[in-house]
Each structure stands twice: as C-alpha cells, then as structure tokens.
Design goal:
7 helices; alpha/beta; 206 residues; 35% helix; globular; seven-stranded parallel beta sheet; two-stranded antiparallel sheet
Length: 206
C-alpha cells in the first residue's frame, strides 16, 4: 500500500503533522536548525544527543542543545546516560522545559571506527532500568535501536514509538526488520532512520 508521508501521525499524546522526521545529527541539529527544518516541512524534529547528568547539572552546552525555540514544532529530545536516576531527572526537567518526547537507546547507532557491536541481551540489560524510570514518570519515550527485538521490548514496556536505525552493524536488512517488527508489535508507531533511503520506505501504522 502506498505510504502517505503527508498524513498526520499520533505518537503517544503528540500528533506530528506528517511522517517526515528530522533525525538527530551531532553538531548540526541545534535549535535554529530544528526550527529551519520544521519551517521547511518536517513533521517532528529531534535534538542532538544530550548527556543526562550534565543536563541536570545545567552545563551550558547541554542546555544549549536542548533549548526550544518557538516555531520548531513537536520536539523529541535525545538523552544519553546509563544511570536511571540521572536519566529520569533529566527527562523530568526536559519535559518541563518543553520536550514532547524523550528518546533513548542502549547502543550507539553512529558508525565509527572501532565500534563493537552490542548483543541484544546486553542492550536490553542496559535499557531496562532506564526505560522503567522514564515510563514511571509518565514521560512519552521513544526507543532507537538496530535490533527488532529491542524495539519490540521497549514498546511492550511503555515506549510510545520505535526508531529503527538502518546503520552499519544492523542485524538485518530494512525489509527483514520490517517483517520482524510487524510480527512482534503489529501496528505500533514506527519510524526508520537511515543515511540512504531503504529499499522499501516504511511508515506506520502499517
């Protein structure tokens, strides 16, 4: 069935005006850039990665990355950290300052030299306490991963959207990931991020 990228999509309590999202880009997707992307038609914008502890301690760079400007539309804030208490507190502060969705992950999806692939079991071990802390706060949470089973677990535990990252090291082709996710989670909201267009463009609900 053809995908209508212009159709709105509900992501938990947030409604994006269309299904084209600005993926997070380190050193690029700051507030002015996000505002520009939204002005050119993006349905939802995502921040650069923000270290949770530094954000809680009000480090200038972390706060600058998270700053929200009028006119940038729904904002997904990407938090990094392994300690549930810092992640939970950062999510609470971020939501209070205007973030609509908090994005987390338990493995770097940025392809860099020397990166070691993380097994799904290890990724889930890292993810579980952080995800539980954020869901308990009632903050809308998104999960990004290169593994279908990790995304499916997070959605089952209360995440509102899954971001399947098609990066070097992904455990399946784009089409294989789609089929796994269809079997695991049915019609949950889903997006795909890639540096190139996947063979079968996907938007969800399917």
């Amino acid at each position: 069935m053809p995908i209508d990228l212009e159709a709105p999509i509900a992501i938990g309590p947030v409604v994006a005006r269309n299904r084209v999202f600005l993926a997070p880009m380190s050193g690029i997707s700051d507030a002015p850039f996000r505002k520009l992307a939204y002005g050119h038609g993006a349905g939802l914008v995502v921040s650069e990665m923000i270290a949770s502890r530094e954000f809680c301690e009000a480090h200038a760079e972390s706060r600058k990355r998270a700053a929200r400007h009028d006119g940038q539309g729904p904002l997904m804030l990407q938090l990094a950290g392994r300690e549930a208490r810092w992640m939970g507190e950062a999510a609470r502060i971020a939501e209070g300052e205007g973030a609509d969705i908090i994005d987390i992950g338990a493995e770097s999806t940025r392809p860099y030299k020397g990166a070691q692939k993380v097994a799904a079991a290890d990724e889930l071990t890292r993810l579980k306490p952080v995800l539980a802390a954020l869901v308990a706060l009632g903050v809308p949470v998104s999960i990004d991963s290169m593994k279908a089973e990790v995304v499916a677990f997070a959605l089952d535990q209360g995440a509102v959207v899954g971001l399947v990252v098609l990066a070097r090291g992904a455990d399946a082709t784009p089409d294989e990931l789609v089929e796994r996710l269809r079997s695991a989670i049915g019609r949950a909201p889903m997006a795909m991020m890639s540096r190139t267009m996947p063979p079968t463009p996907v938007a969800a609900p399917w």
